[in-house]
Structure formats: structure tokens, C-alpha cells
């Protein structure tokens, strides 16, 4: 029993391979566009390892969920967290929302 729980915990803690994340390629491109727009800079870098985080409820239909991908980007000395919210249907990725937040101590 304990070994089964330990294996389950290990499986849940192991991140999915980046290639297995739905909408990964779209998210990488969209994160770069968003950061260029937000920072008004051309020299931006997006880390190549997005991660899926907890889904969000659709505010218009609470029984539906949106997938959320979190990425990190950099411009000069500034670091950003970027979250992209998707409705995934098969191979189709529909961008529903986006959030960008600069890591800063004020």
C-alpha cells in the first residue's frame, strides 16, 4: 500500500516532457510576441520549458476548464512570468487569455 502511494506521488511530481504539453509551440511563440509588446523591446528571451499548471474554470460555463501554461521570459535584467490560458480541443489550441507579470521588488 505504501509503495503504491509512493509511486503515485512520484508520478504526479514528475513533470511532463515539454513535447507532451498541448499548445507548447503556440505558447512559446505567443509568449515572445506578448513580451515584445509589453516590454517594448526586440531582444527578448523565453525559457524553452513551459509547464502546465492548474486549470481555470471558464467564467461563462463553470463546468468547463481552461488549460494554463506558465512560461518565463527575460528582457535585459528584467524577468517575467507569463501565463497563457487555452481551450484545447484535439489538436486545436484556442488562446482565451494571457497574463504577464514582471518580477520586481518595489
What does it look like?
The chain is α+β, with helices and mostly antiparallel strands. It has helices at 2-13, 24-39; strands at 44-46, 51-58, 61-75, 78-89, 92-102. It has two helices and five strands.
Q: What is the percentage of strand-forming residues?
A: over 45%
Low-confidence stretches: 1-14
Shape: globular
Q: What is the radius of gyration computed over CA atoms, rounded to a whole number of angstroms?
A: 16 Å
Give the CA-CA distance, first to last residue. Answer: 49 Å
What is the overall pLDDT average? Answer: 85
The profile of the biggest β sheet is: 5 strands, antiparallel
Structural class: alpha+beta
Oligomeric composition of the shown chains: single chain
Summed up, the helix count is: 2
DSSP, total strands: 5
Helix content: 25-40%
Order of helices and strands: HHEEEEE
Amino acid at each position: 500500500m505504501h509503495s503504491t502511494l509512493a509511486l503515485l506521488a512520484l508520478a504526479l511530481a514528475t513533470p511532463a516532457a515539454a513535447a507532451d504539453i498541448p499548445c507548447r509551440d503556440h505558447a512559446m511563440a505567443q509568449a515572445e510576441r506578448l513580451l515584445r509588446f509589453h516590454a517594448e523591446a526586440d531582444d527578448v528571451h523565453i525559457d524553452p520549458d513551459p509547464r502546465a499548471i492548474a486549470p481555470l474554470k471558464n467564467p461563462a460555463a463553470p463546468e468547463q476548464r481552461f488549460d494554463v501554461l506558465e512560461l518565463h521570459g527575460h528582457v535585459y535584467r528584467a524577468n517575467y512570468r507569463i501565463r497563457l490560458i487555452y481551450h484545447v480541443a484535439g489538436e486545436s489550441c484556442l488562446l482565451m487569455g494571457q497574463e504577464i507579470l514582471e518580477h520586481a521588488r518595489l
